[in-house]
Amino acid sequence: MHDSTIIMTNILFVFRRFLKSKYLRAVNLLGLSMIFACMVLSYIHVEKELSYDRFNVNADRIARLTLQYNDEPIDGRIYGFSGANILSKIAGIEQTVALTHINTGVMTYKGKPQILHDIYCASANFFQVFSYPLVIGQKNKVLQSPHSIVVSESFARRLFGDESPIGKTIHFEGRKLETTDACITGVFKDFPKNSHFHTEIILQRPDAVGYDWPYVYILLNKNVNLSVVAKKVSDLYNKDSSDKDFKTKAHLMPLTDIHLHSRVMRELEPNGNIYFVYLIIGSNILLLVIVLFNLWLNTGLIFSDNKKYYQLLRLNGASSFTVLRDETLLALLLGLLSVAFGLLIASYGTSVLHYSLSILGSGEIIMLCGGFLALIIVVSLLPVLVSLSSTLFLNTSSEIKPLGFSFSNVKYMLVAQYSIVMFVIILAVGISKQVSFIKNTQVGGNDSTILVMNEQPDQVKMRYKLLKTELDKHSEIKGVTAAMQLPGSAIRDMVGVELEGKTKEEQMPLLVVSEDFLPFFNIKPIAGRSFQSDKMTSDEQFQLFTKMTTPSKEKYSCNLSEEYVLNAKAVTLLGLGSPEKAIGKRLTINHSSLGYINHGNICGVVNSFTYTTMYEDTIPMIIIQRPLHFFLNCFMVHLDPKNTEQSLGVFNKVWSEVNPDYPAGYSFLQDEYAKVYRNEWNAEMLVRVFSILCLIIANLGLVIFMAFIIKSRTKEIGIRKVNGAKSLEIVRMLNLSFIRWIVLAFVIAIPLVYFIMQRWLQDFAHKTTLDWWIFTLAGLFVLLLSLLSVSWMTWRAATTNPVDSLKGE
């Protein structure tokens, strides 16, 4: 009982000592709690980002093959791949998996059709190479039979309930999907979140297929050099090439690098970015430095205030160990409270970010908490160890020396701290400027009322004209259009274009659109005009398309002419000079599908608008207006911005009347851009949050430190006032003592943040400018806010009655 009483007494004593300097402790507790919460959340996120695809047993042996033709951008797919057997003969390659992504297909079960997205056709050895566990079926058999299909657990449960799905037959059809009745042969567990692609349906892909665009993965032998194998693949493709100027270069990317490092066109899903991981780690380190600086400073100030107490203890026989023990207990209490509050904040943050603290193992939690506690104790004891000798005796020279935490002793740490604050804030402004540039440059990027529908099945596309007609009857709908693909995706379907009078044919990307496309996105011609209304109906064009593309003994010729719109880069590529000179020029196009009408005149030229992404440079492009449903895969609807909910209700009502068997699956264009630019959006939010935290914590530390400086110079201020100094002069004197160091911090931060921003902007083909005012305004903002934070204290000190200041003299 006696021992427990002593322990309780010691605990209460520590708490009383802790609360004695409650304002300084509160500043430390706030900063430490926030940085620990940030560290926990960042650790969870970074661990998740680095774990992608590592659940595969063969993760270190699987690589994705891509081919680069000359210096063109790399497509993630390989056209017409049927070389699995050929590749397997290359030394180092054990197996090859081809994976075809079907954007949209129609599944019919028991007479009920459903639109499905993200269907995959995979080689028979898919489950042997990848480690996606099967709930039912054997990995070496489930995809062996023609027209076999494997579904996910959630899909099977949703479609069949408690019935066994094995042996059930489902009908599939789609633009890129062979019409077939597929038999379910297995069920796999739902793909983990840290897989670089996800699906609920995998169909068998015959190895003999040579007309699709599969993603190709290679299982390598152990300890094989990727660059050596890649060169062998390159040599294989170039060996039989008849065009010596046409070079194919193979690239092999490790499976575990795809999520964070791959930047090819048409990724299976939006990827992460390793630079965002670096940004998270760097932001935590910078904020931690600021918090630890405040901890070091405040601990030193508290110890200086308590120096006489420790001197009395030492005078009465206490040892240095007693002083260190007391300060260690105080640091431990601060650390425990910081960890506890930090975990509470982190638990709230995980709910917002849809994470869970439970994903951290007990060992990871102990490591984070223990390491953070140790860091707090070490930093807290540094000023104690430096000043420990001053507690030895009273009335010594150490008693009359200035306190160890004068401005001159911490100015360098103050400069370092505010350099970090300036760096983070300028970085936040620069990233926000690029994000705003993206939104203003990307078509429809700033419009939150554009509804988009990804690739639709033929049954829906054939009713597009009816859908548009019915929607246009309602004032709540401001516009309807369709295109071959949605904004933000790659445009790499090429058409041969020949200018009248020239024999050289140029290969040019094309975008097929329906009427009203250019006005829909407010794309105005810089020369000529936009498209006129379609002269032929969809049915008439379909009949013409059938005649022109169906093999027949009877030859058909088409004399129909159409209109084309070029972007400015296409005008340059064709050597047309100015946009005005291009108007009326006759073009001939060569394309296996679109060639049923193979010539026309240029009716308009538009600026090179960004329809793809900001990562890709503007490309020469020809825009063709066709009403045929084969080419109008995606729909776009502009809702009334004044009444979005009512407009959405009108759209849903009209859709259900026109397409009663196919529920509308839509999203907003801004949400699609948010997927494409996920890392940029996240970086903007992250740096903004960290800049606010850095500024708050740094200013709190500055306020506390300036309060200490003013307290130590109270009598000096009183003497200056007695000798005629004005209040404003004293305020200026006190403020100038730190303004010049903040200016120095600004000078130090500028070159570093400029270098980092330039490196970050290298990923963009379209980038904002780093104007001088970005740096100047950020620096002035920090300076003014810091001045406001301390000026009220210096003003109070300057306006204090000098008699009160000199009473203690």
Question: Can you give a write-up of this model?
Answer:
With 809 residues, the chain is of the alpha+beta class. A 6-stranded mixed β-barrel has the order 2-3-8-5-7-6. It has a 6-stranded mixed beta barrel with strand order 13-14-19-16-18-17. A hairpin with a 2-residue loop joins strand 2 and strand 3. Helix 13 crosses helix 25 (772-798) and helix 15 packs antiparallel against helix 20 (644-658). It is globular, with a radius of gyration of 35 Å.
Question: Topology of this structure?
Answer:
Elements: H1 2-20, H2 22-50, E1 62-69, H3 84-87, E2 93-109, E3 112-122, H4 126-129, E4 134-136, E5 148-152, H5 153-160, E6 169-174, E7 177-188, E8 201-204, E9 214-220, H6 226-239, E10 248-254, H7 258-261, H8 274-305, H9 307-315, H10 320-353, H11 362-387, H12 397-400, H13 407-441, E11 450-453, H14 458-461, H15 464-471, E12 477-483, E13 494-499, E14 505-513, H16 517-520, E15 525-528, H17 538-549, E16 562-567, H18 568-573, H19 579-582, E17 586-590, E18 599-606, E19 622-625, E20 634-639, H20 644-658, E21 667-668, H21 669-676, H22 678-712, H23 714-722, H24 727-761, H25 772-798, H26 802-805
Parallel strand pairs: 3-8, 5-7, 14-19, 16-18
Antiparallel strand pairs: 1-9, 1-10, 2-3, 2-6, 2-9, 4-7, 5-8, 6-7, 11-20, 11-21, 12-20, 13-14, 13-17, 15-18, 16-19, 17-18
Helix pairs in contact: 1-10, 2-8, 2-10, 2-22, 8-11, 8-13, 8-22, 10-11, 13-22, 13-24, 13-25, 15-20, 22-25, 24-25
Short account of what is shown:
The chain is 49% helix and 17% strand. It has 809 residues and is an alpha+beta fold.
